[in-house]
Amino acid sequence: MNNIIGRIHSTEIPIAVDWSTFKHHILVAGATGSGKSNTVANLIKAAQGQGACVIIYDQKPDYKNICNPNDETHLFQAWKPEVVKPFGLEKVEKYCLYQGEGETEKSEKAIAIRARDVSLEMLINALFPYPDEGNQRDVFGGLLSYYRDNKDKNWTLNKFSTWVRDSRKKTQKDGNTQSQLDRIAESQGWGKLNEMTLDAMQRKMEQRKMQWLDSLEDNSHKSDTGIFSDIDGDSSVSRGYFVPRKHLDSSKVIVIRTNADGREYGLFLSYMLRKVYDLKRSGEISFPIVNIVDEAQDIFQGEKAIRDAATSTMNEIIRKRRSKDIGFVIAVQSVSQLPDSVLTNLNTRLIHRQNSVEELRKAIPSASQNLMANSLTFGPGEALVSIFEARSVVHAEMAPSPFELTKTSAKPRQTLGDQIGNNPA
Ligand SMILES: Nc1ncnc2c1ncn2[C@@H]1O[C@H](COP(=O)(O)OP(=O)(O)OP(=O)(O)O)[C@@H](O)[C@H]1O
Ligand SMILES: [Mg+2]
């Protein structure tokens, strides 16, 4: 029963997924209100049933009440209870990215990460994502690498920032007015650093630094406030930072409320994917992992720098992954929001209502013209389904979520069709 995610439309023939489906990655797409989150919920249930550790990147957030049975009980009337029924999940841990005091909810632990544990390239892209910031980006990357390699291998963004400020002070030496930074630039062959670029770099770095980066070193937070997830056993690591190895386990569901803009979501996701991949590769964890990336358009529709970095991290892991048992479930509103290089790796397609035939063709190219035309008017929960290694595309009724989904938007969900239909003119 745990493997069942829906049935062929107007029949009792179940549609199920197994480990091989997860291992070859899954795309869930659908316009707003079409039933994506309910479908993803069934995949979470199925992945947990397979013994995977399920890591949910909950951007919306949809999965705060995952331990409670679905309260939309009427949705289950059409289903036999031995096949599909409401129940809350067990073995769930809830986290959120640390966003400052008071942002963490009672049931959650806040996650903080050291900037130096994040790949430098990702950090540069996340802090300076815009195309016209090339100079600031280069100066930031160059100076930070220099600082790390020559001054302080235990650097933090705050320490770096203070060092930049101090090193920019001009001093008189041998009749020359020069700063320490000028001398470093000279010795490194960088030429003269532009003061305006330095100003902009410093200002933006301070403004854009994520709250969850280096939070424990930042003096404004005390490490004993208990807001951070628990302590790593390794004494070489300062206490309180999030260490994925300690939290992952077979059949465990880790919900991480990311609560972030695309820049932060992309940076955090890339960090986590790499960390978890390393744990698998080194053999420190043996159970399979399923990554649930909901609202993936927030990453892939963002600035090019973020999109490219997230795409390459994801593709790198997907390419190497088969033997490593790491599966992805990617949910987006429309397939055109995903880079083609990611899309081609998603071998199972669960496609709810899309807004155009072009999107459908991209999402599920093997569907017949007829199915595609019908699917434009699908109701919630209806989907075109193509499971990895199944021969054909089917019109499916997806099962409602076993657990409660958080109701976030009070906005009425209206399609263009609804609006035209409701307008007597
Ligand atoms: N499988 C289903 N069977 C019956 N009704 C469903 C099903 N899936 C969704 N619905 C109905 O549609 C509503 C919206 O579903 P859901 O939140 O899963 O959509 P979504 O595509 O994730 O929307 P959003 O774009 O807002 O995230 C649900 O509250 C439920 O009433
Ligand atoms: Mg949703």
Automatic annotation (TrEMBL):
- Domain Helicase HerA-like C-terminal, which positions? 263-392
- Cited SUPFAM superfamilies: P-loop containing nucleoside triphosphate hydrolases
Q: Where is the Helicase HerA central domain?
A: 5-185
**Could you list the residue ranges that cross the membrane?**
none
Q: Which InterPro entries match?
A: HerA_C, HerA_central, P-loop_NTPase, T4SS_component
Name the Pfam families for this protein.
DUF87, HerA_C
Q: What name does this protein carry?
A: Helicase HerA central domain-containing protein
Organism field: Thioploca ingrica
- Organism lineage: Bacteria, Pseudomonadati, Pseudomonadota, Gammaproteobacteria, Thiotrichales
